[in-house]
Specification:
This protein has 245 residues and is mostly helical. Helices cover 71% and strands 0% of the residues. The chain is built from 10 helices and no strands. The chain is elongated and about 85 Å long. The two termini are 31 Å apart. Keywords: Signal.
Length: 245
Amino acid sequence: MSQAACEELRSSRMFHKLLEAVLKTGNRMNAGTRHGEADAFKLDALLKLVDVRGTDGKTTLLHFVVQAISRVEGSHLFTLNPSSIKTPSNTESDLECCRLGLHVVSRLGIELSNVKKAAAMDCVMVSSYVMRLGREIGKIHEVLQLNDSFSKDDGRSFHDAIIGFLRKAEGAILDIQARESFVLSMVKETTEFFHGDLAKEEDHPFRIFVVVRDFLAVLDQVCREVEKIDEHDTIIMARQLPVRP
């Protein structure tokens, strides 16, 4: 699951497009300052997009970003299939493009389904369970040695049965430890892919999944709100933030 979550984050075109739009918006808002030429940002910043509001006190920066991407995605779909939009005016066509694109954006949560599942995992607890299994196997070895010291031939069948169990258990634990190491390494690489050197500051290995999961919940809510926005406002808002196709 965690491996699939990493692959989803690194390969999702829509997720990367959204990050690009957020970065461009941030640089535009901070033009002329030392923050206006950023080439990356921590994913935690995604959760703050709804804190930046317009003059109406309701529309947030995330609304603008969603509108912009929706318009570009819808226009792209229209280019591929012009017959998908059958409206008489440019205004209505523009609105339909936004609606088509919004459907694509709103499916990001489905596209990153394994990320949401991975966010619910407690890797610290999993690691502690694996370590505990290793310790318990050690205790079984001690019991076996104690049994051998008190019983010779009479305890042979018991000895053989336990030895068979230990071999299987130790093999399974080694496999779990190898998988755990591989997954943690992959999660670390994914975090570094998005955060760069700042990844070293992360206390929780799976925190990147938690952040994205929380953002997807906010994004889903914003997409529903954008769908209800007045038609005129939909077109005006979308045109204020051009995003490269």
